[in-house]
Amino acid sequence: MTTRTVPHETAPQTVIHTAWPYHEDWADALEGARTEFTEFLSLVAAPGASGQPQKLVIYVADAESEASARQALGETARYVRAPYGDVWTRDTGPVFVKTGEGLKALRFRFNGWGGKYQYPGDESIGAEIAKRAGAQVETLDWICEGGALEFDGDGTVLTTRDVVLNPNRNPRLSEAQVETDLERTCGVQKVIWLDDGLAGDHTDGHIDNLARFAGPGVVVTQRPTGADDPNATLYARTIRMLKQAKDARGRSLKVIEIPSPGLVEGEDGGPAAASHMNWIIGPHHVVMPAYNRHADAAVRALSHAFPRHKVVASPANHILTGGGAFHCVTNNQPE
After folding, report:
1. Mutual orientation of helices 63-73 and 30-45 as an angle, nearest 10°?
2. How far apart are CA 150 and CA 163, in angstroms?
């Protein structure tokens, strides 16, 4: 069988794909979200040691959104007119897999995060991204999103049962079936299962808000901030499970803990799924979402996980009203 791998996101990326906010559901947060997109994408694109900036492709839905994106980012990006429901290209786009036969674009079935949010265009933008990448599409016959899968680039993936095995997505799917399919399509030899995700997470618990690999053998997660942190119990359980886990190479994981944002209230008065974990990696910067005064401490802690990058914080409160942050709205195409 052809060797397959999903590279870790510190590996060189040919392109980072994203989509510009335009949807009417953004309401009063639209202009704030666009400002936050401009700031974090500018940081992601900054050149690394090679002197080359990160290439960006921004999908735009109509003339107004294209004009807005071009005014904001100019020559920093390429702009492609295509239909899409909303900006969450991590989930509506493909998972790119490197194989001996070239780049493959793995596409899961998508049902709007368990039937919650279904917009025209979300089912087609993944094929458009794959086409732009020149990647052959492979389709899996079960439902998942890219934000539910965290790859270490060395045969291990982190995920949560509350997404992948949720009855609102895959009522008849077993852990063994998932593991077999991920081995076949992504070259995964080890799946580390966690149970659930953050309070207030519309996705039911995407892993990219909870635990992320900084590289093979090194995983980052959060510890609670403040007595009212709504995820304190979850963080303690996650840290314990990660410290007990072994990766595909049989290594115990080095677990780096960073402070969470603490309680960030959503528009409904309940906890929002604000997370410092939803970072995106460019050639020079690891860009971490910031929500409040706790971001500075999180940047200092996260810097230990990425000694070859400069970790910076960028505002994300307006993007959060849509349900995610920087990792959720981007899709990595590896070299």
Report:
1. 50
2. 13
Pairing of strands 254-259, 218-223: parallel
Would you state the structure tokens that stand for residue 314, as one six-digit string?
A: 């960028």
Q: Which two tokens stand for residue 293?
A: 């005064």
Question: Catalytic site residue 328?
Answer: yes
DSSP string, 39-73: HHHHHHHS--TTSPPPPEEEEE-SHHHHHHHHHHH
- Summarize pLDDT for 121-133 with one digit per residue, the tens: 999 999 999 999 9
* Residue 322 predicted with pLDDT over 60: yes
- For 152, residues 6+ apart whose C-beta sits below 8 A from its C-beta are 8, 158, 213, 215, 216, 217, 247, 248
pLDDT of 195 reads: 95
pLDDT band at 24 (very low <50, low <70, confident <90, very high): confident
Closest by Cα among 5, 15, 24, 34 to 318: 34
Give the Cα separation of 162 and 43 in Å (integer).
Answer: 33
Asked whether the beta carbons of 60 and 294 are under 8 A apart, the reply is: no
Token code pair at residue 139: 């389709």
Instruction: Render pLDDT for 53-103 as a digit per residue (tens, 0 to 9).
Output: 999 999 999 999 999 999 999 999 999 999 999 999 999 999 999 999 999
Contact indicator for 184, 139 with CB cutoff of 8 Å: no
Q: Assess contact for 246 and 219: CB atoms under 8 A.
A: no
- What is the pTM for the complete model shown? 0.97
List of residues 6+ apart from 98 with CB closer than 8 A: 4, 5, 6, 7, 104, 334
Q: Which of 286, 301, 328, 329 is catalytic?
A: 328
Superfamily of domain 4-334: L-arginine/glycine Amidinotransferase; Chain A (3.75.10.10)
